[in-house]
Write a structure and sequence with these properties.
The structure is a single chain. This protein is of the alpha/beta class. The protein has one domain. Helices cover 42% and strands 21% of the residues. The chain is built from six helices and five strands, in the order E-H-H-E-E-H-H-E-H-E-H. A three-stranded parallel β-sheet has the order 4-1-5, with helices on both faces. The chain has a two-stranded antiparallel sheet with strand order 2-3. The chain is globular.
Protein backbone atom coordinates (compact mmCIF):
# COMPACT_ATOMS: atom_id res chain seq x y z
CA UNK A 1 0.00 0.00 0.00
CA UNK A 2 1.29 3.47 -0.93
CA UNK A 3 -0.10 6.38 1.05
CA UNK A 4 0.80 9.09 -1.48
CA UNK A 5 1.90 9.07 -5.11
CA UNK A 6 3.69 12.30 -6.04
CA UNK A 7 3.63 13.54 -9.63
CA UNK A 8 6.31 15.96 -10.77
CA UNK A 9 6.38 18.59 -13.49
CA UNK A 10 4.28 18.38 -16.65
CA UNK A 11 6.33 20.24 -19.24
CA UNK A 12 3.58 20.07 -21.81
CA UNK A 13 3.71 21.24 -25.42
CA UNK A 14 5.97 24.29 -25.60
CA UNK A 15 4.38 25.97 -28.67
CA UNK A 16 1.00 25.89 -26.88
CA UNK A 17 2.60 27.47 -23.82
CA UNK A 18 4.13 30.22 -25.95
CA UNK A 19 0.81 30.92 -27.68
CA UNK A 20 -1.06 31.01 -24.38
CA UNK A 21 1.45 33.36 -22.75
CA UNK A 22 1.48 35.67 -25.78
CA UNK A 23 -2.34 35.84 -25.69
CA UNK A 24 -2.08 37.73 -22.38
CA UNK A 25 -0.34 40.53 -24.31
CA UNK A 26 3.17 41.25 -25.50
CA UNK A 27 3.62 43.99 -22.88
CA UNK A 28 3.22 41.62 -19.91
CA UNK A 29 6.23 40.59 -17.86
CA UNK A 30 5.41 36.93 -18.51
CA UNK A 31 5.67 37.44 -22.26
CA UNK A 32 8.78 39.65 -22.15
CA UNK A 33 10.59 37.05 -20.03
CA UNK A 34 9.46 34.08 -22.13
CA UNK A 35 10.23 35.87 -25.40
CA UNK A 36 13.92 35.88 -24.40
CA UNK A 37 13.90 32.11 -23.85
CA UNK A 38 13.11 30.68 -27.28
CA UNK A 39 13.68 31.04 -31.00
CA UNK A 40 11.40 30.21 -33.88
CA UNK A 41 12.47 27.69 -36.50
CA UNK A 42 10.09 27.32 -39.44
CA UNK A 43 7.49 29.29 -37.47
CA UNK A 44 7.60 26.97 -34.45
CA UNK A 45 8.99 28.16 -31.09
CA UNK A 46 11.80 26.06 -29.61
CA UNK A 47 13.58 26.44 -26.29
CA UNK A 48 17.32 25.81 -26.07
CA UNK A 49 17.21 22.08 -25.44
CA UNK A 50 14.79 21.57 -28.35
CA UNK A 51 17.30 23.27 -30.65
CA UNK A 52 20.20 21.22 -29.31
CA UNK A 53 18.20 17.99 -29.69
CA UNK A 54 17.07 18.99 -33.19
CA UNK A 55 20.64 19.39 -34.42
CA UNK A 56 22.32 16.83 -32.16
CA UNK A 57 21.47 13.97 -34.54
CA UNK A 58 22.68 15.55 -37.79
CA UNK A 59 25.78 13.35 -37.88
CA UNK A 60 23.63 10.20 -37.75
CA UNK A 61 24.75 9.09 -34.26
CA UNK A 62 22.11 8.24 -31.66
CA UNK A 63 22.28 10.27 -28.49
CA UNK A 64 19.87 10.52 -25.56
CA UNK A 65 17.43 13.42 -25.65
CA UNK A 66 18.70 16.26 -23.49
CA UNK A 67 16.39 18.06 -21.08
CA UNK A 68 16.55 20.85 -18.52
CA UNK A 69 14.38 18.63 -16.32
CA UNK A 70 16.83 15.72 -15.88
CA UNK A 71 16.92 15.95 -12.11
CA UNK A 72 14.66 15.03 -9.24
CA UNK A 73 12.02 17.74 -9.19
CA UNK A 74 12.49 19.81 -5.98
CA UNK A 75 8.77 19.83 -5.19
CA UNK A 76 8.75 16.02 -5.34
CA UNK A 77 11.74 15.67 -3.04
CA UNK A 78 10.35 18.21 -0.55
CA UNK A 79 6.89 16.62 -0.47
CA UNK A 80 8.40 13.13 -0.20
CA UNK A 81 10.43 14.12 2.86
CA UNK A 82 7.37 15.85 4.37
CA UNK A 83 5.20 12.75 3.91
CA UNK A 84 7.90 10.37 5.18
CA UNK A 85 8.60 12.45 8.31
CA UNK A 86 4.96 11.99 9.25
CA UNK A 87 5.17 8.21 8.94
CA UNK A 88 3.45 7.79 5.58
CA UNK A 89 4.74 5.92 2.54
CA UNK A 90 5.21 7.50 -0.85
CA UNK A 91 6.15 6.81 -4.43
CA UNK A 92 6.73 9.26 -7.25
CA UNK A 93 6.88 9.98 -10.95
CA UNK A 94 9.28 12.83 -11.62
CA UNK A 95 8.44 13.96 -15.18
CA UNK A 96 4.83 13.46 -16.23
CA UNK A 97 5.24 13.54 -20.03
CA UNK A 98 8.26 11.26 -20.11
CA UNK A 99 6.98 8.80 -17.50
CA UNK A 100 3.31 8.34 -18.43
CA UNK A 101 3.67 4.58 -18.90
CA UNK A 102 5.35 4.23 -15.50
CA UNK A 103 2.61 6.35 -13.92
CA UNK A 104 -0.09 4.25 -15.57
CA UNK A 105 1.50 1.06 -14.23
CA UNK A 106 1.63 2.48 -10.71
CA UNK A 107 -2.00 3.63 -10.89
CA UNK A 108 -3.18 0.26 -12.21
CA UNK A 109 -1.81 -1.47 -9.11
CA UNK A 110 -4.73 0.17 -7.29
CA UNK A 111 -2.89 0.37 -3.98
CA UNK A 112 -2.49 4.16 -3.83
CA UNK A 113 -4.46 6.11 -1.24
CA UNK A 114 -3.78 9.66 -2.47
CA UNK A 115 -2.18 11.41 -5.44
CA UNK A 116 -0.37 14.75 -5.11
CA UNK A 117 0.25 16.83 -8.24
CA UNK A 118 3.01 19.43 -7.95
CA UNK A 119 2.08 22.85 -9.31
CA UNK A 120 5.27 24.88 -8.85
CA UNK A 121 5.87 26.48 -12.26
CA UNK A 122 2.51 26.71 -13.96
CA UNK A 123 1.02 30.00 -15.12
CA UNK A 124 -2.14 28.32 -16.40
CA UNK A 125 -4.28 25.41 -15.21
CA UNK A 126 -4.06 23.21 -18.34
CA UNK A 127 -0.85 21.29 -17.39
CA UNK A 128 -2.44 20.29 -14.07
CA UNK A 129 -5.76 19.49 -15.75
CA UNK A 130 -3.93 17.13 -18.15
CA UNK A 131 -2.38 15.27 -15.21
CA UNK A 132 -5.71 15.03 -13.38
CA UNK A 133 -7.47 13.68 -16.50
CA UNK A 134 -4.73 11.07 -16.90
CA UNK A 135 -4.91 9.98 -13.25
CA UNK A 136 -8.71 9.71 -13.31
Amino acid sequence: MTDCLLIGHNEGHFPDYVSFTKSWGTETGFWRKLNLCFIEIDGVPHHAMDVINRYNLRDGQRRPKLSNMDFLWPAVSYLASYVARRGFTFDWVNRFQEEKSLLAAKLLREDIRAVAVTTTLYLAPWPVEEVVRFVR
